[in-house]
Amino acid sequence: MALQQNHHNHQSEQNHQQHQQHIKWQQHATKRRRCRQLWIKHLQLLGLAVIVILASAPAPSHAQQQKFRTTPHDLQVLEGAEAMMRCEVANVAGAVQWTKDGFALGFSAVIPGYPRYSVLGDRKQGIYNLRISNASINDDADYQCQVGPARLNSAIRANAKLTVISPPASIEIKGYNHNSKVEVRENQDLQLKCIVANAKPAAQIVWYRGNVEYKPEKREDNVEESTAKRFTTTSSLKLKPGPDDDYTEYTCQAKHKALSPDMPMRATVQLSVLYPPGPPYIEGYSPGETLRRGQTVELMCRSRGGNPPAQLIWYKNGSQIRMAYRTSGRLSENIYTFTAEAGDNKARFRCEASNVMSQNPLKAEVELAVLFAPTHVTVMGPTEARVGDIVPLTCTTAPSNPPAEIKWMVGGRQVRNATSKTIVSPEGGWTTTSNITATVEPNKRSLVVICHGLNMQLTENVVSTHTINVLYPPAPPLISGYMEGQIIPAGSVQKLLCVSSGGNPLATLTWYKNDKRINSVIRAADKSVSAEITILANVSDNQAQYRCEASNSATEIPLFQSTTLSVHFAPETVKIRIEPEELRPGMEAAIICDSSSSNPPAKLSWWKDGIPIEGINNTSKPGLWGGTVSTLEFRVNVTQEMNGQVYTCQSANQALQRSVHEAVSLDVLYRPKFVPPPSSTAVGVEGESLQVSLQTQANPTPVAYKWTKDGATIPQDGEHRIFADGGSLNFTRLHRDDAGIYSCSASNSQGKATLNITVVVEYGTTIKSVSENIIVNPGEDAMLSCSVEGKPLSDEHVKWERVGYDMTVKTSTTFANGTSYLHIKDAQRADVGNFRCVADNRVANPTNRDILLIVKFAPEIAKAPTLLRAASGTGERGRLPCRAQGSPKPQFIWRQDKKDLPINRTYKYEVEERKIDSLTYESTLIVDKVAPADYGAYECVARNDLGEAVETVRLEITSQPDPPLSLHILNVTHDTVTVSWRPGFDGGLKASYRVRYRMVDREQYKYIDGLPNSHKLTIGGLRMNTLYLFSVMSYNELGQSSYLPDLARAETKGLELMPAELTEDSSNTPNLVIIGISLAAFGFLLVNASLVAWFFVHQRRKKVAETTNQPAKTATIEMYAPSSYNDTVTGETLSSVSEKSESYSNEGSSQPEYIDEARKKAASTYLVEGSDMPPPRYQKDGTLPVIYPNNIVNACTLPHPRHNNGSAAIHMTRDDQMLISKGVYIPSPSPAPPPDGSYYNMNSDRYLSYPPMEYPATLDFTAQPMPMAHLQPMTVTSLATNGGATLMGNGSVAAVAGGSGTLRRGILRGVVGVPQPDVTHHTSTVGGSPMQMLHDLHPVNLSASTLTTSTTLNGSLPTATATLPRQPHGILKDPNRNKQHQQQQQLLNASLVGVGVPVSSAMGSLQILNLPPAGGGLGNNLLMTTSGAFDPTTMGMSSFGGVGQAGGIPVAYTDADGHLV
């Protein structure tokens, strides 16, 4: 419809435009028509005259008049079709044309202004048909075919009317879409208006109701002209719909000539009339019908009619029970299905129907009648009775319809004439109740009563049985299982059994303990019952009375029997009292022990350290549970040393052989006392942290510390740079002003103590001042001074140097008061230059200053090619340089042709002078507006008091540059080469440079331009391992120079394997990456295969080891898990330490510790001592500087990056030197490690990064082993003196008293097969002969410990026990420690045997060797020897001898963990 409407609007607009155009054409045509009519009148007059003349003349007999052969006739055509108006003229003589409403269309076949009009025909045939294409409403007109007059022919005309018809544009029922539904209430007025628009002629409207034409009496039709020659027809119906009109369709149809009968134009609506439903009706039950309980009932409620369909709801006794309904058309149905119950009797079921048109719901009701028997009967009365009792009984039925009857049976006899009554039940139906009485007869255990409930109409019967028990009393109870007076030990189990027989019902047995009921196990038989209790005897059971009671319904007072228990029990607790409560030195104290109750009485005793102490005042008194309480005391005179002493009181019950004990630790209060520190001096480095830790002994332990310096209190707040934390003084960043004496005061409630500590701050050297430029005459002595500040500071910390100058020939140095003096004898010209003062005390980075020594000398003019030539264009300014050195300052004179130039006297010549450095000066001659005559040679004269120098400088015209003077290779990588060149003369213009290069085996060059103002260039994109040739040239605006010869060459490097964290991703080498990944995958497969093979071999070896080496396992277990209780470490402790050590990882270490090349260099590898601290802190002989005391306080300082420089042979800490020189180990506190991952070195008392930041250079093992100088002299004498240890010749290891251990950390590079760092340097004392065993693998503080080892050559280890200290947390950082611990037993079984060392054997430096693989199946294990150097190429393992060999070399073996075995 919308498209049709749009088309209609568009066509209307087009028709309107055509109509306007047509009006204009008609106006013009009217004017022309009037003119033509005027002419026609004249022509008619003239024609009449001619006709009259001709008529008067005799006419020829053969002439025929023109006439219409086919006359135009009226034509009707459909809009848009073609119209053909026929006109045929016979004997045509005149001109023929068509007119439209009197407007002449012209005589031509094509009509101007009417493109759709054309005349078709043939003049010879007389055919003049007018064709109109695509006819429109505007073509609807009167047309005339005119034939003009001609000779003897008069004009003829014929009219015809063209009618253009147009179908309606649309049809609609106003307000409704086609086939829409019109919702209207019943009897509500409804108007339907049909509109047929834009038809020509006007259309007719026909109404249909359903499929039948509808001709109402009242119908309003109207026709209006909507546009020119188009008409709109409307027709209105007024309806008042009823229920019969529901679903009725009303259709309006347009009738028009232009419409095809096969395709009528229609608009249809369907009425939906809302009206109330019909009344509901119920099916499925008829009034008066009887239902039985349990019968299925289906009630159907239906309602017909209604729009919308009725809503049906079921109600039962006014309560809604179902509202789900279904509809079909205008029929609604609600089916309620249920099973009839008693409650449905006389129930009213109602169905209601309603919809939106209902004012009130329509209802239908039915009342049901349901018959049902009682579901049960209930008998009420007593369940127990004595003989002769009269028992009342009541029987009641459940609801029944009709009412039920009751029948009684008592003791098997029917009761007659029993009365009953019936009442209405609120649940529906009636209930019946009957009451009787019965007498209990003797000699019966029970009386059975039966009640019947009968519904006579339904013939249904329900029964209930009631039993009355006849009561008899039981026999008295009997207790068995215990005889009074019997002794029961506490903790034992005692059972008591109570039995009672007879009685109806059987007796109920109950146990009581001292009138408190307790649970028991009841067992019943036919004529008896028993109750058993199980007692776990304890103190509360002593003298406790256990009673058993028997009762049933026939007894008024329970029957009972009781027994009393006797229990022996030990004391449960011991309590110790101290009088007075607070102990102080000098007072007498009483220590009292109170034992809890015991039966029989307990015996008390006092003990100290396993030794009994005699007590006094042993008393006793009655206690709980019938026992006895005992007391024992002793007295002591209190001293400070008694604090913490433990006294134990034991209370024993000798009859039970049980005892308890309690210990008390004396709490003696005394004022703080400082633990003497190793030294009263603490040394730190400026800029680093320092911690000074002091410990006190005091009771009470909360000790208040106060640190002061020069009377000022050190703050406790950690936000300050210097702060105190209890007994620790912390310097987060040391400053040299922090040095001084610090006083620590410790106080508690008992008093206070004070200790002074001197803090020495070391700081790096700085040069405060140097002597200014020293100027001397030739032959004189010169002295340069350099004042240095630093700590420590000595003459060794200040050095003088000069590159390319022999300082030993003419110079000497002195040092005084922090100033170093350099003396130069007989100073000459060659001595002129900078001498560098370098100050370095190895605390911080070195500092240096240059001091210029100037010896007066005559001027020397620089003769560089670029300084002896200048160039300038004509008319420009020329600049001629002249650079000279001299002292004193030279004067410059410029000459040309042996004549001095008039400098600064005319505009032509000017001179600029500048000082380049202390010895170099430059004079520049400026020639203004250079003329041809100015080109040529100029002389520069440099003159001072010692002489003069003359040099020629040429001024030339600008030209192309000279080649660079030289080319040098600066740096080479795997794909880049950096070159530099010395520029030549630039020709007076700015020069640029170009570098060419090629591979040595190719002739093609590649070129690259240099950077502006730069004489250096990096060439990239080169091949690896390739030799290249390089050359350079220069060019400017005027031309270029030649290339230098290809003499500079460089070969690029290959890729080096670097640690993963240092390797960068390179997109230039994808092939290498692919190859590397492939190799890694292949290696991974090999590793997996190896692991599988190792697993099977390992399992087989493990089985063999378990069957053959049981003694060795025992020795290992005993060594790592000693049985002693006090001050020992169990295997569990060691294991836990090992596990904890795994948390300290070795990540971040990029230094390789093991290099495979070491295996190629020597068959044996030597372990050489490394260090953690810098050697500059020591004298040349390895001793401490004299400016410090011998003992240094424990200082925890993080390492400086420079601490690992220098030779490995002299890397030692102060503590190491003291320990070696004195042979003692000074224990020290171990502060917690810092959070940066460092560990605490217990030798140097410093936090060190792990692993060390630098390592010594790779050792050359082809030479003789390096002696361990800091461990010498290690002879038998020194070992015995220092409390060391040696290896006994009988193959066993014996230790002597007096030894103490020091931990050392060795650094091993280039060694293959050496295990990871682990517990090191183990010194022990047992008694016997001296022995010292040194493991130099990992720093762990093992204080005085005990080790006893016995080794033989048969591959087994007899009993070996060890007493080791508890290892401090936080220092074991080897991640493989746990695995090594697990492998220890297997390693000890793998032929790790030691060879005895005779005591008398000469002992040299200590060596730790790595055994070659062929060494008797020992594998890559360390071998320790105290003899001379061991050369494996000349000495086999067999030469080390067996047990007792006189010539054997003393050796010791280590396992894979580095432990001495």
Distance between the termini: 111 Å
Number of helices: 9
As residue ranges, the low-confidence spans are 1-8, 50-62, 1058-1069, 1108-1461
Q: Rg, please?
A: 67 Å
Protein traits:
1461 residues; mainly beta; eight-stranded mixed beta sheet; five-stranded mixed beta sheet; 9 helices; 99 strands; disordered N terminus; disordered C terminus
Q: How does the SSE layout of this entry go?
A:
Elements: H1 2-56, E1 67-70, E2 75-78, E3 83-85, E4 88-90, E5 96-100, E6 103-104, E7 117-122, E8 127-132, E9 141-147, E10 156-165, E11 170-173, E12 180-185, E13 190-199, E14 204-209, E15 212-214, E16 219-227, E17 230-239, E18 249-255, E19 265-274, E20 281-283, E21 290-292, E22 296-304, E23 311-316, E24 319-322, E25 326-328, E26 331-339, E27 348-354, E28 362-367, E29 369-371, E30 377-380, E31 384-385, E32 390-397, E33 405-410, E34 413-415, E35 420-424, E36 430-439, E37 446-455, E38 460-470, E39 478-480, E40 487-489, E41 493-501, E42 508-513, E43 516-518, E44 521-524, E45 528-536, E46 545-551, E47 559-564, E48 566-568, E49 574-579, E50 588-598, E51 603-608, E52 611-613, E53 616-622, E54 628-637, E55 646-653, E56 658-665, E57 670-674, E58 681-685, E59 690-693, E60 696-699, E61 704-709, E62 712-713, E63 722-725, E64 728-731, E65 740-748, E66 751-770, E67 774-776, E68 782-791, E69 798-801, H2 807-810, E70 811-816, E71 819-824, E72 833-839, E73 847-855, E74 857-861, E75 869-871, E76 878-887, E77 891-896, E78 899-900, ...
Parallel strand pairs: 2-10, 12-19, 21-29, 31-38, 40-48, 58-66, 67-73, 75-82
Antiparallel strand pairs: 1-4, 3-8, 5-6, 5-9, 7-8, 9-10, 11-13, 13-17, 14-15, 14-18, 16-17, 18-19, 20-22, 22-26, 23-24, 23-27, 25-26, 27-28, 30-32, 32-36, 33-34, 33-37, 35-36, 37-38, 39-41, 41-45, 42-43, 42-46, 44-45, 46-47, 49-50, 50-54, 51-52, 51-55, 53-54, 55-56, 57-60, 59-64, 61-62, 61-65, ...
Helix pairs in contact: 4-9
